[in-house]
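The following block was generated as part of the benchmark described in Methods. Ligand: FE2/S2 (inorganic) cluster.
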Amino acid sequence: MNLTLHVWRQKSGAKEGRMERYDAKDVSGDMSFLEMLDVVSEGLIAAGQEPIAFDYDCREGICGTCGVMINGLAHGPVRGTTCCQLHMRSFQDGDHITVEPWRAASFPVVKDLVVDRGAFDRIIQSGGYVGVNTGGAPDGNTLPIPQSAQEAAMDAAACIGCGACVAACKNASAMLFVSAKVAHLAMLPQGQPEAKARARHMVAQHDAEGFGSCTNYFECEAACPKEISVKHIAILNHEYAKAMLAGVE
Ligand code: SF4
Ligand code: FES
């Protein structure tokens, strides 16, 4: 199929950006969206122009590094799919496709489609880990964790930190991301000693990074490639309320 791309090009965060038009010819439906961008970039290099800068690592939907707005949708039109796993068969011959970086003040553009998601790293550093000594690895059968708690924790742990929830939210809120990390650890015994401090500190860092508040639009859940449920935000609010009542600073 032949497509027309409208791609955001920006040399650096300090420079102004603009949409540029490119033809993508003979695109196979079996290509991923990133492979299609590779082919277009190879054409640009052959023509002596700068290739399109975009982020990726695993290309298997597990690292969370990729992520662009495709026709205004975070990760594109297929629900529960990262853009590295999005296949070009989801588009029609002759389509015009706009490709832009995540749009959020807390994710400043580095170049073209690449944004700085260091804010997520700083939120994790503020409490998204288990810091207590849990000793050596015990036999799995001796861990008193109900199957339902394991399953629920794994559902929350599926978050890959891609930032699509922020890009999709009109408030640029990262509450779905924070809630997935807080809920994941709060559901397991190893995470419970620090649960209150974790909720308090991660929310404080979220706010300090300039992300907005959640006002229940649920765009985050719709855009999330791992289909993280907004019910985790309710769990986060519960953990946060417990921390406030306990006077955790
Ligand atoms: S909650 Fe979903 S959209 Fe947000 S960072 Fe995690 S995986 Fe990405
Ligand atoms: S490149 Fe790893 S999730 Fe897309």
